[in-house]
Structure formats: structure tokens, C-alpha cells
Write a structure and sequence with these properties.
This protein is of the alpha/beta class. The protein has a single domain, classed as Protein tyrosine phosphatase superfamily (Protein-Tyrosine Phosphatase, Chain A, Alpha-Beta Complex).
């Protein structure tokens, strides 16, 4: 599994995960996986259906919220919904590098009223810049 980076006490992000990574995700307290990659983004990438089947077999909730060419209101709304439904466990959001997942988390947090400074601080601590979504924050 790619390195997991913590954005807050409920959200982890990473690059691409594979179906065989589900037990490790569970060991980190993950109860929901959010896939922010569209299928067929690059050769050899597991499909959403493959990751979903493995997540379900491991008892982990799954959401597919692909972000291909920018983030629209529908993706933000779906991320807000996922964040509100994660419950007592943790969410692992992934994409190719973790960047799109972090950007989606940041915009969703702002929609939920989290102060901009806190969102920027947490993303920065995980090694991510939010410059690409500055206009949405």
C-alpha cells in the first residue's frame, strides 16, 4: 500500500490502492474508502469495481467519486456526504498521488464550515498545497 497521510483524525489519503490492501486499511481503522480516480486513467490501474468488491469483502464501505478534469459541485456534495457518513472509523480517500483526494477533502471541509486556516494547515502538514482550489476555499 502507498504511504497513508493523515489530514485529520478521520481522514487519510494515499495514492492508488489495490484490492489486496484492504486488510492493511482495516488495521489503520479505515471503515470507508473513497476512490477519486476515474477508471482507465492509466494502464494497470485496478478498476473501481475491483476495489469496491475487495472493500465490501473486507467489510469496508466504498464510494466512487471520480475527479477527472476539475472538481464540480456534484463531487463536492458527494465528498461532504461521505465525510458525514464515516461514523466512528476513518475514511481513506485515494487517487493517483493523494492530491485530488486532498483537494476534494479541503473543499468539502470548507462546505462544512471548517475554517480555511485549519484546512490549509492540515493539508500543508500532510505535504499538500491547496493552490489549485484556492478559489473554492
Amino acid at each position: 500500500m502507498n504511504a497513508l497521510r493523515s489530514l485529520d483524525d478521520k481522514v487519510l489519503v494515499s495514492g492508488q490502492i489495490r484490492p489486496e490492501d484492504m486488510e492493511e486499511a482495516r488495521r489503520h481503522g479505515v471503515t470507508m474508502i473513497v476512490n477519486n480516480r476515474p477508471d482507465d486513467e492509466e494502464p494497470g490501474q485496478p478498476t473501481s469495481a475491483e476495489v469496491e468488491a475487495a472493500a465490501e469483502a473486507a467489510g469496508i464501505d466504498y464510494r466512487h467519486i471520480p475527479i477527472a478534469r476539475g472538481m464540480g459541485p456534484a463531487q463536492v456534495e458527494e465528498m461532504v456526504s461521505a465525510l458525514s457518513e464515516v461514523g466512528d472509523g476513518k475514511m481513506l480517500a485515494f487517487c493517483r498521488s493523494g492530491m485530488r483526494s486532498t483537494l476534494a477533502w479541503a473543499v468539502a471541509c470548507r462546505e462544512q464550515g471548517v475554517p480555511r486556516e485549519e484546512v490549509e494547515r492540515r493539508a500543508g502538514a500532510a505535504g499538500f498545497s491547496l493552490a489549485a482550489v484556492d478559489h473554492l476555499l
